[in-house]
Amino acid sequence: AGGEEKRPAAAAPAAATRYYWNDIFVEDQNTTESKPEGYFFDAFRDAVQQIGRTVLVLFPLAAPIPLTRAWCVWEMFCTAEDPRCELRVALPPAAAAEFERVLFEGGGAGELMGYVREVNSKDSEAFDARDKARIHAIVEDKFADAGAFRRVDSDVSAVLRGWMQGAVRAAVARSTTASAGSAGAGSVEDA
After folding, report:
1. pLDDT one-digit tens code per residue, 89-139
2. For the chain, is the Cβ count within 10 Å smaller at the N or the C terminus?
């Protein structure tokens, strides 16, 4: 008797796997001396770009430490340089509260933009002076025709300004929704 063929229920499509560059887990900065010549420019940059997303913890908000660290600036640059890559900014709770306070009670979006406007990679530091020298040498060598440190600073600043603009728009939208009687102004997250 011609019964119906039973087929298993279609599985829901699997969520795309997302990977994030988080230097403390991916790169042991204590072993840099054992890395081959060109590692920071080639293998390191390629790894950041192949992973495709970098998480940046921006703290303290008014004077972010990552903007003063050679490794962090280099990682942000490697991310910003590739249009397929995404820089995700995370604010710790205290910085998220400060963000909201500055936006709505302080100097507003202009003050917040000032926090990420100036990147000075030439003055960035590293725990190990040899790391700083190697990273700075790569910048000077590979990007001399593009203004070297100005190129790095411009690219990093542009991606951070883009994040800040999106975060300000999202906070204003949440505030508008909350003041209209809707639920929940959440914490500041990346836009």
Report:
1. 999 999 999 999 999 999 999 999 999 988 999 999 998 898 899 899 989
2. N
DSSP summary character for residue 53: E
What single string gives the DSSP state of each residue in 80-106?
Answer: HHSTT-EEEEE--HHHHHHHHHHHHHS
- The answer to whether residues 136 and 41 touch, using CB atoms and an 8 Å cutoff, is no
pTM, to two decimals: 0.77
The answer to whether residues 74 and 42 touch, using CB atoms and an 8 Å cutoff, is: no
- Measured between alpha carbons, how far is 171 from 176 in angstroms, rounded to an integer? 9
